[in-house]
Design brief:
Layout (H helix, E strand, L loop, with lengths): L1 E18 L5 E21 L3 E4 L11 H12 L5 E7 L10 H16 L6 H8 L6 H6 L3 E5 L3 E4 L7 E6 L6 H6 L11 H7 L5 H4 L5 H4 L4 H13 L3 E4 L6 E5 L2 H13 L3 E5 L10 E2 L2
Parallel strand pairs: 3-4
Antiparallel strand pairs: 1-2, 1-11, 2-4, 2-5, 5-6, 7-9, 7-10, 8-9
């Protein structure tokens, strides 16, 4: 049996620069990782099977794990088949990239288990059609995502601070978020410049997530959580991706822990990530 973790991401600023005739959008965003993860346990099987701990998530051909498995099988081929048992912790529809992260790990695990030896760039070529942000999770490094989100520039922008990520308990539609957003191709500040050159305490005034303008008016609780994180003492707070999750970045551990515990006491799902967190992208054999 092989085991591995599939990690979530947050967006450090997100600009929607242009709406393209294809219906997609040209964006710019900084990506960091958090310690919210799904656990994969995979073993050889007579045929492919997928079991997911969350019954609300379909384990059929619509699941990105299944799509990734089928794509690998079609383009690379498989000597064996495998059953996937996935313990879901990352909320779905939360702007944390859980589905894309799962798909990327599926490609990486098959590459390892089948001893194919594909480099990450070739895995990225396999998975581009399944989701624009899957390449980010294949490489597993923080950085800037541009164009449609598929062009990744690795960059050391993982905050050296505590991150509290809060899931309000409902999903937010990515399609609606982008449809109702007004693109701006001349933002006031460069996200990359801010993340690299400015201290975190300046980010709130310089960074923004353009999708908040279309999501928060429809989901007041998202805005309330953002305000609460700032009230708790976050140096920077924002919605991640198209929502619904919101995160706050804290300089001091006891302030972050207090915020994290306060949301838990209210029955709201939250995650606490350590400063300078690096996801464990290892694939291990379980004895």
């Amino acid at each position: 049996m092989w085991i591995a973790e599939s990690f979530a991401k947050i967006n450090l600023g997100l600009y929607v620069l242009e709406r393209l005739p294809t219906g997609y959008h040209r964006i710019e965003t900084g990506i960091a990782f958090i310690e919210w993860s799904d656990r994969f346990e995979v073993e050889r099987s007579p045929k492919f099977a997928l079991s997911i701990s969350d019954d609300s998530i379909p384990a059929d051909e619509s699941n990105l794990i299944t799509k990734a498995y089928r794509a690998f099988e079609q383009y690379i081929g498989l000597k064996n088949h495998y059953s996937f048992n996935v313990t879901k912790n990352i909320p779905a529809g939360a702007g944390l990239g859980g589905g894309s992260s799962n798909a990327a790990l599926t490609f990486r695990m098959l590459n390892k288990m089948e001893d194919v030896g594909l480099p990450n760039d070739e895995i990225v070529d396999l998975c581009r059609d399944l989701g624009m942000d899957i390449p980010l999770f294949v490489h597993g490094k923080p950085g800037m995502a541009t164009d449609l989100g598929q062009n990744i520039e690795p960059l050391d922008i993982q905050p050296d601070a505590w991150i509290v990520t809060v899931y309000p308990g409902f999903e937010s539609s990515t399609k609606e978020a982008y449809q109702n957003c007004i693109p701006n191709n001349e933002p006031d500040f460069s996200i990359k410049g801010v993340l690299v050159e400015e201290p975190i305490e300046e980010w709130q005034a310089l960074l923004q997530n353009d999708l908040e303008q279309s999501v928060i008016p429809r989901y007041e609780m998202i805005g309330n959580i953002k305000d609460q994180l700032l009230d708790f003492g976050a140096e920077y707070a924002a919605m991640s991706g198209s929502g619904s999750s919101v995160f706050g970045i804290f300089d001091q551990d006891f302030v972050a822990i207090n915020a994290y515990e306060s949301f838990h006491k209210l029955g709201i799902s939250a995650n606490l990530t350590r400063p300078g967190f690096t996801p464990d992208y290892g694939i291990y054999v379980k004895e």
